[in-house]
Each structure stands twice: as C-alpha cells, then as structure tokens.
Design brief:
heterotrimer; A mainly alpha; B alpha/beta; C mainly alpha; A: mainly alpha; 68% helix; B: alpha/beta; eight-stranded mixed β-sheet; 11 helices; 12 strands; globular
C-alpha cells in the first residue's frame, strides 16, 4: 500500500547568500548612543545608578558656571548655620560651604573618573599583555601583580603621598600605583582563555600583527569585563581619594569633598555640632558611591542571569503543593 | 483498593509546564505510563522532549518556574519482604497519601496507594531515597566536592536509619562500595580524586544505599566513554538481578534501550508517542518517529543505502505544531495530521500492548495501517530526495 | 604541600619588595627632607646637632657609602630590630611605640572582623535560602545601601549622634586614662569596652554588607548546582542541605576574604582610629605623617605589611585545608 506522500520537509530550501544592503555610515554611529541608552535602561538598578552619576557629572560641568561664589573667599561670617545668603552656612574662616561643595564636585568627580580610567588602562595593558604572551613575560607580570595585590593599599598610599609633593596629581598617581592589580589579574585569566580560541589562531594564521590581535581581536571581547571593572575601580577610587584627602594628604587649597571633611575635622566641627559642614560632603560621596554601586550590581545581574530578580507567576494552591 | 498485579508506579495524565516570562513551555503533556515491579522501563527521545523533566517531576525535584499543573503519580508500596532481608522494613513511610489509608503508625498495607503529588514535604522527604532514588547524569556535578564519598553515603543512612550506629553505617558504606566494584579504601576519597567511571559507580552506590524500590536513571552513561558505559550497564543489570528494584531508564540512545529495557516509551515534544515491549519495538516500530530514531544510525551489515535521518529539528515547546506535533518532519504525514491530535491507541488489534499515537493506524483516517516496510520506503524516498549521501 | 611551599616563597619575595620599597621611597622623594624637617622642628625648640645627625643618618644623606652598601646596612639594621628612633618622641625607639599601639588595633580589629564575618555570612545564607521572601527583599537592598556609605562618613556620623549629641559614649581615646589604670581589673576592662564600642560598631556595620552580599550571591549560585539537588533528592533535612552541601561550598570565596580582612586589621583601621582618636597603630601612622616623623612612617608601614603578608599566608593554609581540590591543582 502506498503512503500518501508528505509535502517536502521545510529544511530542504536552497540557501542563497544575499548581499548585505549597504548601511549609510552615520547610522552605524547612531547605534552607539542607542546601545548605551538601552544598556542604561535595561535594568532598574542601572537606570537609577546612571541617573545619580549623570547628575553629579552635570553639576561638575555646569555647577561652577552657575554658582558664582568663590569657594576660597573668606569672610567675616564664621561658622554660620545655613541661611539665604549662604545656603549651607560657612566654615571657620567664613568660606561659603555650598559653593565649596559645588566646586568640589568638579574636582572629586572628574579626578575620580579620570583616575579610574588611568587604572583601567594600566590594568588592561598588563592583563592583556601578560595573558597573551605567556612565558617569562607572563611570569614576571604575574609576580608583579601578585605582589602589588598583597601589599596593603591604603598604608602604602599614605606613605607615598606623604613623601611626594601634595596635590591631586600625586594622589591620582598614588591611587593608580596601588590599585591596578586586581583588574589586571581578572583580565589576564580572561585573556588566557580567549587566546586558545579559534578566532585568535585564525588571526595569527592570516599574519595579523601581535598588537592588532591583542587590541582589536581579543580586547573587544572583554569590553564587558573591562566596563564592569572600571565601575568597581571608580567606586574604590572615589572613596580612597576622599579618605586620603580626609587624612590631610591632599592639597588643602583646592576644594574637594574629602578636603572639606578634613578642614571640618581640623576645626572640630564634630565636637562643635556644625552638622552643615561635614554632613553634605559626606552625603555626596555616599551618593556617588551608591550610584556607581547600583550600576555595578545591575551589570552583575545582566551578566549572570541566576542573580536576576525573578517575578514568579501566581501559583494556585494546587500547583503550589505539587512543587516540593 | 485492590492492587493490580505487580504495578509499582502509575503515572496518570501528568502535565508539567515551565512558566517563563516570555511564554509557557509545555514540557510534559498528558503523559501516562505504568511501571511494574522488577521491570526496566526505558524513556527515549531527543533533547528537549521532556524526559528529564518527567523524571524530576516524579521525584518532585522540579525547581520554579517549572510546575506540575495536573496529574497523578501513584505509588504502590509493599510491606516488608520476608525472604530477602536486603529490603529493610519501611519505618518512615508516610501514612496519609490520598486513598485507602489507615491513619496512624504501623506497617503499610499492601493495597495502599500513595499519591506522590499530594505528600507534604516531611512525608516526601521520608519517601525520598528510601523508595525512590535517582541517579543523575553528571556524577561529577552531583557529588559534593568538599565531602568524601563515604560521608555522602553515610549521611543518607544517618538521616533515614536513625537506629544505625556509626559502625554499622560504615559497614554498610563499605558493603555498597564493594557492591558496585569500588575499592574500599576509596571511602575517604574526594570526588575529584576518582575517575569518571568510578564516580558514576559511586553515585549508583549512594542510590542503592537504602535499597529503594524504584531507581530513576537520567542518562547515567552519556558522559562516559563506551567501554565504561558497557561496564556500568552490566553492573546495573547485575544489581537489579540481585536486589530486584525497578528502573526508569532515560536516554536518547534508543539502541541502548533495546538491549536493556523491558518496555520502552518514546517521547516527542512532551508527549508519549509510542509504548511497546522491547521486542515489538525492535521488530516493528509503529510510529514514524520511532522508526526514524531506530534507523538513524547506519547498520554494520547490509547493502549501502542513502540515509536521511529525521529532517528538521525538535519543535519550540512554546509553540507546538497543531495536531500531531511531529507532522512537519514526518515523511508519512497526510491531510488530517495537522488538524487532529492523535491519541495513544493499540496499533493493531492483534497486539494491544503496543500503543501508538498516530493517525496512520486510525481506521477513521487511514484505510490500512502501514507495515514497517512502508515506513522504510517512506524514509528511503526522503533519503533519495536529499543531497547528502 | 608543594602548593604551600610555593606560596611561602612568594610571600618571602613580597616581603623583600616591601623592605626595598621602604628603603627607596624616602630616597626617591624630591626635595631635601632633612632641611624641611629641621626647619619645622626648629619652631618647636632647639634642634641639637645630635638630632640633625640622626636625621641625616636616617636618610643616609650624609653617608658617603655607595647606595648598595647603605642598602645592606639598612637590611642589617632591620634584622637586628633596629628600626630607628622616633622624632616625635625623641629618643624613644620606634619599635617600643609600635609595640604599645599594635595591641589596641588588634583587639579592636579582631573583634570587629570576626563579628561582622560571622553575622554577615549567616545573614547571607539565610537571605539566599529564603530568596524571594520578604526577608530577602528587605535585607538585600538595605545592605546594598549600607555598603555604599563611605566608611569614615559613617564613623563621623555615628560619633556625632552617639557621642556628641546623646552622650552615651566617649568621644576619643582607648580607655578612661584620667580615672582608670591599665591592668586586668573589671574597671579597666569595662572602660576599654566602653571606649571600643562605637568604633567596633561602625566597623561591623560597614563591613557586614560586603560579607552578606558576597555570601548571598555565592549561595544562590551554589544552590543551583546538581549536588544540592541530589542532596534534596536524598531526602536529607533542610538544615543539613543548607549547611553541609550549600553553605560549605558557598563560603569558600569568603574565606579568602576573611583571612585578608584579618590581615588588614593590623593595617590599623586607619580611618576608624582617626575619627575616634583610638590609640592604635593606624593612629600612630597618621600622627607620624602629620608630624613628618619619617622613621615612624617607614617602620609602621613595614610592620603593617609584614602582618598582612603573614595573614595572607595563613589564609592560603586555611583555604587548602577547607577545599581539598586546591591541594592537587596547580595554582592558576
């Protein structure tokens, strides 16, 4: 008996390679802000965090332009509580605290972000070079990384900052020197696993130069890790910067959040109950740190689906019993 | 409630869904089967056919978002055996499943029935491992890396046999290791110190610790090389001879099941499409899918012929094709297949044991049921049309 | 065992780097520290030629020995325990001062770290186990927030509220030096506790979040492992599965962190000691920096580094003991 023939199975379709339509070059660039926007709004945590950080960046850029009061201008009004003239009161030498806060935002935020970028660059270079080359280069770099990891960062930073001339550049370099190792180690192990993948072998076979392979083939695959590392690092940088300033190792004449706390402490603001002096800068540091942390946790959740918040459907009673 | 002869486990109309945010996945739809004492039931199917979900559902190990939406899983326990004392008297068995129970403590009557889906978690915990044990696919992942193998055997004993002392626990653990062929000094080894085959044997040893009635094996040898695979399977057969437990054996390797299993159930897209004895399935597979599975591997002897395998890929379980789920890939599909869902019915009236869910055997839609040669020819025609030789 | 020997050699190498850094940093810094220091000290009183000589010796500036000879002299001095003399407390040897202060740091830090570790891990286990319930929904975001607060600000805030406003606790110091004498008396011990309470509280609160969140995330990942599923399938009690199968594996990443935290104790909870004026080794370092007591700075740094390295080595030993897989594997 004859079985009625079935229609041709769907799989047997001739595959024709269509040429890709040419996209105008500017649309490729337009994709970048869209990608960033999507990345920022995809998770609530990231959105809130980005909003906070964005706020501070805006204040840093535009604040000093809008707020015209000179933060270093002394006056006769000492330790005055907040008033319409001085929104956050004055310091022990009569400087306006609010304008100090605003000008300090520029210092703290931009030096913080800048140092974060520097640390990331150093760790990327060390991590990628060590991971790719292997051999004695890797051994030396790994030893360097491990030693740098194991030496206590804050004491070392203090010692270094104490000996070199005071100023934001010193602090920045000190922080870079003491903090590059963590991210370098993470990137190195990632590079090691990438190195044995086929696209690298293919690139080598076609004669691509080593530097191109490292920075144009391998590095783009690790961008996610680098971005997450940058955010973590920046949190730490901002906090450490404030700590070093608080300990008096910064340049006291440049307004910054940590510096404000230092002067507040020196003037006994705590014992004197001058809450308007030491609460606002600390709150700003905390807020910026919180914003960066939120972005960090959001990135964590995006990367590891197991950590995502699950919204389970409503279970009926019968169903609930069936699941142990 | 009278026990039907020798039935150990009865699954009736089981439905398991995964409630994901982007659609409900019907992993298991309307599955029913029976497991008798001392038999090996094979469950075969491609990846994604729902076989592992089914196994986990029986033991209620499913994690959210999986849910058992309806069905019954009836377990017919038995009182203590009198001759073979390797089966210890059930002391912790729960007393209030759903039907026909005597309240209060005491032995379970032979005709009592427990609906596993209705048990509370305490009762479930008592039944687990005592009556129902599961051997996982990847032994490396199933063993706690920071505990020795011996400790992992003994903690089951400590939980379920509180009257056993430390010494007798150790004795029993050594017995079990010997039973599966692992050297006794391995009692204090960590999982990463054992080879793949040894780890699988260790898992089996743990599974047999309390002499369970039912052993569910989820692809126990897939991760091993063929030589070790053969050893493990021989071991399982030997142990079953000795201890008399039943096995639900889950695998995608149908040829393995044909050697091992008494009864075979073939799953596709979450449903059972054919159930048959080992012999019947080998001699005359009825469902086109079963035929395809059996014959997708070239034989060692015989004339050279073109093969096509089963074209296409398993369906997305959020959007199962209408009517018979297999129809887009079936070389024998005809007009009614996309429209009406086939139900499990005996393929031929002469052999009611072999049931198949296919319209080809339904006299209302297809005049004469096809023979195995007809199925072969249909696949051959497919192979002729394909470009791969 | 081989693994541990390799780690030991590594730490020896790190110690050598620390010592060498200590030697070179002052010599590399720009400017003439001696002149600056003498100038500064002159404002407080007459600087004897003897003191000037000490300073010059300290910096090796008047020595005509080549650099490498100075280096070996320096190493020699170190091994004899001669770490120089303090400028602030001239002529008390640095080591004497350090010995006094380090006890306070260790006591404060030790108690705080152990408490926060235990509490944090416990909360993390519970939060992961009860994931999705009100407990976890409440706990996790509040811990997130807590961990973002900069420590020293939290400390200042606490000091302000509890010591200044409410006057429940003292504002500074290690014990009530005006009324109580050191010794194993109840008075002294209760005084010590009273003075250490706020600093310890801030330390515990600020580091709690870190332990808890790491533990929680680690637990969540571990809970999805097959061996936890198998433990459940074996019918083991909830508590047994939670601790012996899940937590025991999930805590491993935290153990390394714990040992490193112990090491950091000796780093002197710098910020804590500054805010609360607690007489520990961190406070000593800060005073030294402010007073430009270079001998102190270098020595304290060295002591802190040695302690941290030692603690890290202990962490490695502890980890090898807890995770049997490490004993066989080569370290990545």
């Amino acid at each position: 008996m004859q079985i009625q023939q079935a229609p041709q199975p769907a799989g047997a379709v001739a595959v024709v390679l269509m040429p890709e339509p040419k996209t105008p070059f500017y649309s490729r660039f337009l994709r970048i802000p869209f990608a960033i926007w999507r990345a920022m709004t995809i998770s609530r945590k990231v959105a809130v965090g980005s909003a906070i950080v964005g706020f501070f960046i805006l204040v840093g850029i535009f604040g000093p332009i809008i707020v015209r009061t000179d933060p270093n201008a002394t006056s006769n009004l000492f330790i005055a509580p907040p008033s319409p003239a001085h929104w956050l009161g004055t310091t022990v030498v009569g400087e306006d605290i609010f304008s100090q806060l605003v000008y300090g935002t520029r210092t703290s935020v931009f030096w913080g972000l800048g140092t974060g970028v520097l640390v990331t660059i150093v760790s990327v270079i060390v991590g990628l070079v060590g991971g790719y080359f292997g051999g004695w280069v890797d051994d030396v770099l790994t030893l360097l990384t491990n030693v740098s990891l194991v030496l206590p960062a804050l004491p070392l930073a203090i010692v270094l900052a104490a000996y070199f001339p005071r100023g934001p550049l010193t602090i920045s370099l000190v922080i870079v020197v003491t903090n590059w190792a963590w991210q370098a180690r993470v990137l190195r192990s990632q590079t090691l696993s990438m190195r044995s993948r086929e696209f690298v072998t293919a690139a080598r076979a076609t004669g691509e130069s080593t530097w191109r392979i490292i920075f144009f083939e391998i590095f783009p695959n690790e961008i996610g890790l680098v971005v997450a590392g940058f955010v973590s690092t920046t949190i730490y940088v901002v906090l450490t910067w404030a700590a070093l300033e608080f300990l008096g190792l910064g340049d006291g004449s440049i307004p910054s959040w940590g510096g404000m706390l230092y002067w507040a402490q020196q003037a006994g603001a705590l014992g004197g109950g001058l809450w308007w002096w030491f609460i606002p800068p600390g709150a700003c540091i905390a807020l910026l740190g919180a914003g960066l942390s939120l972005i960090n946790f959001g990135i964590d959740e995006i990367a590891d689906p197991r950590l995502r918040v699950e919204r389970p459907r409503k279970l009926t009673k019968a169903m609930k019993k069936a699941v142990a | 409630m009278v026990t039907q002869d020798n039935i150990l486990l009865e699954v009736k109309n089981l439905n398991v869904d995964y409630l994901a945010s982007n659609g409900t996945v019907h992993a298991v739809t309307d599955v029913s089967f029976t497991l008798r004492r001392g038999e090996i039931l094979g469950l075969a199917g491609e990846s994604g056919s729902g076989k592992s979900t089914l196994a986990y559902a029986i033991t209620r190990l499913l994690r959210p978002p999986a849910q058992i939406t309806s069905g019954e899983i009836l377990y017919y326990p038995r009182a203590a055996r009198n001759q073979d004392d390797s089966r210890v008297t059930v002391t912790n068995l729960p007393k209030n499943g759903r039907r026909g129970f005597r309240r209060g403590k005491g032995q379970v009557r032979e005709d009592e029935v427990i609906d596993i889906l209705q048990l509370s978690s305490a009762q479930l915990r008592a039944i687990r491992w005592n009556d129902l044990a599961i051997v996982f696919q990847s032994a490396m992942n199933a063993l706690n890396p920071v505990m020795t193998v011996g400790a992992q055997i003994m903690d089951v004993l400590r939980t379920h046999r509180p009257d056993m002392g430390a010494d007798s626990r150790k004795q029993r653990a050594l017995e079990l290791l010997q039973l599966v062929g692992i050297a006794p000094d391995r009692l204090r080894s960590y999982p990463h110190e054992l080879s793949g085959g040894m780890r699988q044997r260790a898992i089996i040893a743990i599974a047999l610790a309390l002499s369970p009635e039912i052993l569910i094996m989820d692809e126990p040898t897939t991760a091993l090389d063929v030589v070790v695979q053969r050893e493990i399977l021989t071991e399982i057969m030997r142990l079953r001879e000795k201890l008399g437990f039943s096995v639900i054996f889950i695998t995608h390797d149908l040829s393995l099941l044909l050697e091992l299993a008494d009864h075979v159930a073939i799953m596709y897209a979450g449903r059972i499409v054919e159930k048959a004895t080992q012999r019947d399935l080998y001699l005359h597979p009825r469902h086109p899918y079963s035929y395809g599975l059996l014959h997708s591997f070239p034989t060692l002897h015989g004339p050279r012929e073109k093969m096509s395998g089963i074209p296409g890929s398993p369906p997305d379980l959020r959007n199962v094709p209408s009517g018979c789920a297999f129809h887009p890939r079936c070389p024998c599909a005809f007009d009614v297949c996309p429209k009406v869902l086939p139900v499990l019915q005996p393929a031929l009236a002469t052999n009611p044991e072999q049931v198949v869910a296919c319209h080809l055997y339904d006299p209302r839609y297809h005049a004469e049921p096809p023979t195995t040669e007809d199925l072969a020819k249909a696949y051959q025609a497919l192979a002729e049309g394909s470009t791969v030789s | 065992m081989r693994h541990l020997i390799r780690r030991f050699l590594f730490y020896i190498c790190a110690v050598w780097v620390a010592i060498t850094l200590d030697f070179f940093i002052p010599r590399l810094a720009p400017g003439d520290p001696v002149a600056a220091l003498v100038g500064k000290m002159s404002t407080k009183g007459y600087v004897t030629p003897q003191m000037q000589q000490t300073l010059a010796d300290l910096f090796g500036l008047n020595s005509h020995d080549p650099l490498w000879v100075q280096y070996f002299k320096y190493l020699g001095n170190l091994f004899h325990g001669n770490m120089g003399v303090s400028i602030q407390y001239f002529p008390t040897p640095v080591l004497t001062i350090i010995k006094q202060d380090i006890g306070w740091s260790i006591m404060l830090g030790g108690v705080a770290v152990i408490l926060s570790f235990l509490l944090g891990c416990f909360l993390g286990i519970i939060a992961a186990w009860k994931r999705g319930t009100w407990l976890d929904t409440l706990l996790s975001p509040s811990m997130n927030f807590l961990s973002a607060i900069p420590y020293f600000w939290l400390a200042l805030f606490t000091l302000y509220i509890f010591a200044y406003s409410l006057n429940w606790f003292p504002l500074s110091g290690g014990y009530d030096s005006a009324n109580v004498d050191p010794g194993w008396t109840l008075d002294f011990i209760s005084s010590v506790i009273q003075y250490a309470f706020l600093p310890a509280l801030t330390l515990v609160v600020s580091s709690l979040a870190g332990w808890m969140l790491t533990m929680r995330n680690s637990m969540i990942t571990t809970l999805s492992e097959d061996y936890v599923l198998m433990a459940r399938a074996k019918g083991l009690s909830e508590r047994r599965v939670m601790f012996w199968y899940a937590a025991r594996n999930a805590v491993l990443p935290n153990i390394t962190g714990f040992a490193i935290a112990i090491g950091a104790i000796v780093g002197g909870q710098l910020l804590t000691e500054m805010v609360f004026s607690y007489p520990g080794i961190g406070y000593a370092l800060l005073q030294a920096v402010n007073q430009q007591d270079y001998a102190m700075i270098q020595s304290v740094f060295l002591i802190i580094t040695l302690a941290v390295l030692g603690a890290n080595f202990l962490a490695d030993i502890l980890y090898a003991f807890l995770d049997p897989r490490v004993r066989v594997e080569r370290s990545a």
